[in-house]
Prior knowledge:
This protein has 6 helices and 6 strands; from the N terminus they run E-E-E-H-E-H-H-E-H-H-H-E.
Amino acid sequence: MIPETDIPSFSSLPYIPYIDNSGQLPEELQGKIGVYAIFNNDRILQLVGYSRDIYLSLKQHLVRQPQNCYWLKFQSIERPNRTLLDNIKNAWIAENQTMPSGNDVDEAKWNQPIDARVDMTDEERDRYSSLDELGQSKLLKNIARRVEEKILIELKSRGVLVEIRFNPKLKESGLLDLK
């Protein structure tokens, strides 16, 4: 925990593996309020964010961008304070000297539900336009399930053993987000 006037130097914080040897996210971050930075396998900064529960945010980011979540740094604080969180986030981005893509052009990929409709085949697109609302919903759900399976296979190949459950209601509209 830090006093409100102390913003830790980004470079002074240690790199922590995103996924530990037992396939888990850092469990000490469950319920922790703070700022976090996510790095790819080459330790290139991808995103700086903050959250009321760093662990849950990291889990969402892992599902949305598994290929970019290998290392992290974080700073927790005692009580929610948006000004302090913004100040730390902005200081870290400034110290990095380059805007991470997750805070810029790829922001939606990191922070919005996965749109499985992007993975529709041409055949599915043609079929979709000829279906009624119920048929469209079923088709979108099947596409979302296919994308979900692809994500779960990628996570498993990384050794991730964290329980991942997607919101079933969103699948009907072709979206994937954790429950």
